[in-house]
Amino acid sequence: MNAEDPWDRTSACELDPVRRAAFAQDLTRALTAHCPGSRAELRGSLARGTADAYSDIDIAWTVPGDRFDTCLAAVPGVLEAVSPLDSLRTDPESRNSRERRLLFAAFRGLPLFWRVDLEIGASPGAHRSGHGQDGPATDGDDWSRPASALANAVAATKAVLRGQPQNAQGLLERGLRRIDAPDGVSGRWFDDIRRLADTAADREPGLRPLADRVLRLAEGHRAQLMWWTFPADVRERVDALVLAGRTIQAVHAMRECGIEPRPELHTCVDVLEGRHGRH
């Protein structure tokens, strides 16, 4: 794995929602300013006020129909002017649409959790002369199954941290199937995420830097991923012991719960620190 990338630190400070909100506003302003008569606005959980620290950034950019193509072509430059791009990919389902495109942007200066989903649409009722019906969906050069699998690895990490292990399992299974890998998920979340990321990079070596970012992301949250690896009854017992101040017994409960390989002592201590903070 590469040396630590300072942009991959996703501590409470780095996941500051105020920072994310300011960045989202910079993006919407830049898009609107680039095309007079267009409108860029937040969608999803940020717009509803229900976002948590892990929520991504959903933006809808509505542009005049006769400028759809030129606005689409300008997107990389407009986004780069706000912050350096790490990757920009097009949803294959919308690739050949004459009126709508969905782009996925990752920025070098943001945590991987904060991907930008940018939907570009032509103004309702806009007429675009010289264009026929939408063509069939195609993958294109900027989209690949391994890249999509890495997106699933990030989403699965997010799901575990939100306490949604069933969602994480589905994301990992779909990601593994996408790259023709055995889709058995063990529930040892760090190991499962690592297997998906490494297999994706093996399938497409050019994705190794992104896969390493995903691995550093999972490593940074290893204690939280381990917490959700324990069965529910073990988590309840550990929390009860933490509340009772019985730290040694709590560590013993984690290490002797039957998980193989047995959790390492330092990982259990990190888990306990997180539980102390939660309580």
Q: What this model shows, in words?
A:
This protein is α+β, with helices and mostly antiparallel strands and 279 residues long. The protein contains eleven helices and five strands; from the N terminus they run αβαβαβββαααααααα. The protein has helices at 17-34, 44-48, 68-82, 145-161, 165-178, 189-203, 208-220, 222-227, 232-243, 247-255, 265-278, and strands at residues 39-43, 57-63, 85-90, 100-107, 116-122. Helix 4 (145-161) packs antiparallel against helix 5 (165-178), helix 4 (145-161) packs antiparallel against helix 6 and helix 6 packs antiparallel against helix 7 (208-220). It is elongated and about 65 Å long. Mean pLDDT is 88; it is low at 1-9, 129-133 and 135-140.
SSE arrangement:
Elements: H1 17-34, E1 39-43, H2 44-48, E2 57-63, H3 68-82, E3 85-90, E4 100-107, E5 116-122, H4 145-161, H5 165-178, H6 189-203, H7 208-220, H8 222-227, H9 232-243, H10 247-255, H11 265-278
Parallel strand pairs: 2-5
Antiparallel strand pairs: 1-2, 3-4, 4-5
Helix pairs in contact: 1-3, 4-5, 4-6, 4-7, 6-7, 9-10, 10-11
Q: How would you sum up the major sheet?
A: 5 strands, mixed
| Residues in β-strands, percent | 5-15%
**Shape estimate:** elongated
What integer value in Å does the Rg equal? 21 Å
Poorly predicted runs: 1-9, 129-133, 135-140
N-to-C series of helices and strands: HEHEHEEEHHHHHHHH
Strand order of the largest sheet: 1-2-5-4-3
* Structural class by SSE content: alpha+beta
Q: Give the rounded overall mean pLDDT.
A: 88
Annotation field: number of helices: 11
Count all strands and give the number: 5
